[in-house]
Design a protein that fits this description.
Layout (H helix, E strand, L loop, with lengths): L9 H10 L8 H14 L5 H21 L4 H11 L2 H15 L9 H10 L16 H9 L3 H16 L25 H16 L3 H27 L9 E6 L5 H14 L3 E5 L4 E6 L1 H31 L7 H29 L5 H19 L13 H13 L9
Antiparallel strand pairs: 1-3, 2-3
């Protein structure tokens, strides 16, 4: 008489399926995923048990990603680039599952904002409906997938998360931030004014108006940075050091976009390090400057993209089609270079208007601190030189940057 073999515990079943995919790549990957998905869908432990095990393993995998330096927006951005839409939504769901472990007041402001932007919510969680054991069935209904397809989707997403390497951290881990810690980069009223000015600059069809609006926004940013630096230098408490945030830099023309972000960061006492393989730049600077860098970069990118399409449409309408990669990339490279010149001049103008003798030494000290922090976070970096290949695109990009130029002087 043979003794019946007990079914393999669900955690071991899921771990074995994921382990079998780690070393597989290329043409063999699809077959391996299908075989592993079939095993999960038909596991003797039962689908509900597999569901709970999948979320348990997924939460641990996501937690390791956070410890390795990743943040929710980074993971979601990579998922959108590497995975199917269903796998990307699965990834957001497992981010939500892990986020349940943290009290809201232990999340940094940027972390909480990323979760809100992703709308990462545990929509499936109802105690009376089985909790996490009902997740896979609920996900299958939402996505209109079979159990096999759902298992394949889960394995595809988990394989990506499982393979993410260590990267430089940017900000505190979830669960470690303190409610009393300073999280706002600028007073809400001033941020509102800056956002309103930049929104108008993006929407206007008149170059001179866009120039004036953007100039006023940059003036507010530069003056706030100076005031904040002097306030921090005169504080009796412990000195606040530089922090870091990540800003997505996605294709097409990501090199030119990273160049634009670098220009905005440098003009605002920050440093940007581009990680092209992951689709983001890490910006290092003091809290008073980081959010403002993101605001200005986003606005200038919108203005540049609008102007680029307008220039291409203009030439196409006249029978001189410039809808080519070279034209657009050259346009954005020239735009970034010209904006760099204009931003640098604007910052110098604002600093020159300051009569307080302590301004320049304080700003210089902060620049040194930012450089040292960037060096510790990224001890090995390489520089890239970008060159436009289309003369017309370069000329039109320079013109667009002039129209959107950021001058620091006062305007009546």
């Amino acid at each position: 008489m043979q003794t019946p073999v007990p079914p393999e515990p669900p955690l071991e079943t899921v771990e074995a399926a994921l382990r079998g995919l780690r070393a597989v790549s290329g043409d063999a990957l699809d077959d391996a995923v299908y075989a592993a998905a079939s095993a999960l869908a038909a596991a003797p432990a039962g689908w509900d048990a597999i569901s709970g095990a999948v979320l348990r393993i997924a939460s641990a995998t996501v937690r390791r990603c956070w410890e390795y330096g990743w943040q929710p927006a980074d993971v979601a951005r990579l998922a959108r680039r590497e995975l199917t839409p269903a796998e990307t939504r699965f990834t957001v769901d497992v981010i939500a599952a892990e986020a349940r472990r943290y009290a809201p007041d232990t999340l940094g402001a940027r972390w909480a904002a990323q979760l809100a932007e992703l709308d990462a919510q545990a929509w499936w969680w109802e105690e009376e409906s089985g909790g996490d054991r009902a997740f896979l069935d609920g996900f299958a209904r939402r996505e209109r997938l079979s159990r096999f397809e759902t298992a394949a989707c889960a394995l595809g997403a988990l394989r990506l998360l499982d393979r993410l390497p260590r990267i430089g951290g940017a900000g505190p881990l979830p669960g470690t931030a303190h409610g009393g810690a300073r999280t706002a980069a600028a007073p809400p009223r001033m941020l509102g004014r800056i956002r309103a000015l930049l929104a108008k600059a993006e929407s206007t069809q008149f170059a001179e108006e866009a120039e004036a609006l953007s100039a006023k926004a940059q003036e507010l940013m530069a003056r706030h940075s100076i005031d904040e630096a002097l306030l921090a230098a005169g504080s009796a408490g412990p000195a606040e050091g530089p922090g870091a945030c990540r800003i997505g830099v996605e294709g097409p023309y990501e090199s030119a976009k990273a160049l634009l972000l670098d220009a905005v960061a440098a003009a605002n006492h920050c440093q940007a390090v581009w990680s092209g393989e992951y689709g983001f730049s890490t910006v290092i600077g003091f809290d008073a400057d980081l959010e403002l860098v993101e605001l200005l970069y986003t606005s200038l990118l919108v203005q540049a993209t609008t102007a680029m399409h307008r220039a291409a449409d203009d030439h196409h309408a006249r029978g001189r089609s410039r809808r080519t990669r070279d034209f657009r990339e050259s346009f954005l490279i020239a735009y970034a270079g010209r904006i760099n010149d204009r931003l640098s001049a604007a910052v110098q103008d604002v600093a020159a208007e300051e009569s307080r003798p302590e301004v320049l030494p304080v700003l210089a000290a902060r620049d040194v601190a930012v450089g040292e922090t960037a060096g510790r976070m990224f001890p090995e970096t390489t520089s890239h030189r970008l060159k436009g290949r289309d003369a017309e695109g370069w000329a039109r990009g320079t013109e667009a940057a002039d129209a959107a130029r950021i001058a620091g002087g006062r305007r009546g």
